[in-house]
Write a structure and sequence with these properties.
This protein is mainly α. It starts with a helix and ends in a 5-residue tail after the last helix. α1 runs parallel beside α11 (about 225-255) and α3 (about 45-65) crosses α11 (about 225-255). The protein is globular, with a radius of gyration of 19 Å. The chain has 12 helices and no strands.
Amino acid sequence: METIILIIKSVILGIVEGLTEFLPVSSTGHLVIFQNLIGFKGINPSYVEMYTYVIQLGAILAVVILYWGKIKDTLINFFPHKVGYKNSGFKFWFMIFIACIPGGVFGILLDDLADKYLFNPITVAITLFLGGIWMIYAENRFRNNKPREQGLNITAKQAWTIGLFQCLAIIPGMSRSASTIIGGWVAGLSTVAAAEFSFFLAIPVMVGMSFLKILKIGGISILAFQEIISLVVGFIVSFVVALAVINKFISYLKKKPMKIFAIYRMIFAVIVLLAGFLGIFH
């Protein structure tokens, strides 16, 4: 019975992850809140932390599947001598590497502090609310700027700017997607180009972070059988849900503003704060 309950909770969290990973609403923040709300726990004390990072890989796999055509093109045309530096896969992945540098440095320096002090529902709610205000300001200030670059052919300066903004995602509730899209606006990208670059940037960032966390915790081998089953279920559910969400999100961004996500963040944050004051969280 305990295994069934754990699997049901895993399905719920997999849905939450798949829905929120690429939307500018903070998947990590939502997972922290819902894990606390439904009392998600395993036998191993490190299970919840490991689960959080493993199911994110399911959502990342959805990006790889949906954008495989573009990824394959960058690999086929990887070497500059074939298509020129500007159109080469080397240039594209080098820009991704540049964008990863700030987050990698600050992540190593601040990750343990964030885990210790910021991973709780109240802190996440405050960050969600403040981040929502910031999103509205950034969209009004930068979104309508005429893009200096179209598509994913961005410059090193733009990649670095996006990477600096991604550092804000170390704070749970800020949202990696929101931070990188706003960074893209500031750098002069269109909304769709910023969102798609954010998707590609998530591949090395989330895969690297997840594997480092899993190794740091002790590897999947330390888990009990029911925990492994729960992990697999969460991974599959987050993958399937993310597959459905990504294309719809891009279609939405082509026509409408991100303000609706900012408003959602603020309303959800108020609800979470009220729940916290009422002692609903475990």
